[in-house]
Design goal:
CATH topology of the largest domain in chain A: Arc Repressor Mutant, subunit A
Shape of chain A: globular
Strand content of chain A: 15-25%
Helix content of chain A: 25-40%
CATH architecture of the largest domain in chain A: Orthogonal Bundle
CATH class of the largest domain in chain A: Mainly Alpha
Order of helices and strands of chain A: HHHHEEEEHEH
Distance between the termini of chain A: 33 Å
Oligomer: homodimer
Structural class of chain A: alpha+beta
Radius of gyration of chain A: 18 Å
Strand order of the largest sheet of chain A: 4-3-5
CATH superfamily of the largest domain in chain A: Winged helix-like DNA-binding domain superfamily/Winged helix DNA-binding domain
Chain lengths: ~170, ~170
DNA sequence: CTATTTGCAAATAATTTGCAGTGCG
DNA sequence: CGCACTGCAAATTATTTGCAAATAG
């Protein structure tokens, strides 16, 4: 999937603004990393972003890519798919249910809703393949994490340093 | 969250049946591992399952837990949360959208739907915390994987052996 | 100028694999 | 009994970190 120029520019504009407002430095590598993710309609992994950026910036290192991607997520400029920075979780509940996932600590709770169980998917989804299950995934901040303060506490342990720019 | 006895028994019954039908051997460790996942309302990671089972079966090894959990998933007895066996993926599309995820290869596609954008969540969700985004996650098998045959091809590379019991 | 940020190389953490012995059907 | 399954230890893979040099504001 290819994203159109105008949209990419819009995304990059927002990126510049958010960085400036939050006091995050606008380095060459951050710009390139964000551009790389922004122009992919896809959902690349860190390594693919790395490879893409490397073509334009051969000296960039993979760990900078990781650091930047998490930074961008903390700034709310991009999202991660699935549970945040966590190990794989298993679920034996095969009945129809939905998930609330805490983006800070990964807490995952089931919930039920007759209404949500009978969602009508757009026809276009069939073009992707055969549909097996449909679930609603609600992302948010759980009560415990909300109480602990507004700072983005990384899921698994992102060192001491309290980031001055942390969300809000 | 605690699951009631009757439901656990029902799940284990299905487990026995599926194993028998698919020619998978019913070993002591598999039973215990499945029981552990089935009786947790939670969504445990492999390690937590391991610790739980170890109390009753001190000699079990962590890698058997891993092998068994993926086996159970391939048999359709449990599910994994998020993209299957994959590295973290990043998404710069911040507008309202939903995902189709292939459970075989991890392919992820965005799709849009005005109707899905305005889902009404049950009140109970608010008890979990503050809601930030709501997305519909459709899991299925993409066209490419569907064509490649019905066998469960593991996402990242689960060795040669074509499993005779693979789904269908 | 000076606090951030980068690149490097080395460290972790999660998950997988080869292999020889064990046990289910 | 034979082949699928297990446990072990060693291998991979993804991701993170400490540190000195580089750089944005």
């Amino acid at each position: 999937m290819k994203i159109n120029k105008r949209e990419i520019e819009r995304r990059i504009g927002r990126f510049n603004e958010v960085c400036r407002n939050s006091g995050v430095k606008l380095t060459h590598q951050r710009v390139e990393i964000f551009r790389e993710v922004a122009q992919t309609g896809d959902h690349p992994e860190a390594e693919r972003v790395y490879n893409g950026v490397r073509e334009r910036m051969p000296t960039i290192s993979l760990d900078t890519v990781y650091r930047t991607l998490w930074l961008l997520r903390d700034l709310g400029l991009i999202n991660t798919l699935g549970p945040p920075r966590e190990r794989t979780r298993f679920d034996a509940n095969l009945s129809y249910h939905h998930h609330f996932v805490c983006i800070r600590c990964g807490l995952t709770r089931d919930f039920y809703s007759d209404e949500l169980d009978e969602l009508k998917l757009p026809e276009s989804v069939k073009d992707f393949g055969y549909v097996e299950t449909t679930q609603v995934e609600v992302k948010g901040v759980c009560l415990k994490c909300a109480v602990r303060g507004k700072k983005t506490k990384p899921t698994i342990s992102r060192k001491k340093e309290v980031k001055s720019w942390a969300r809000n």
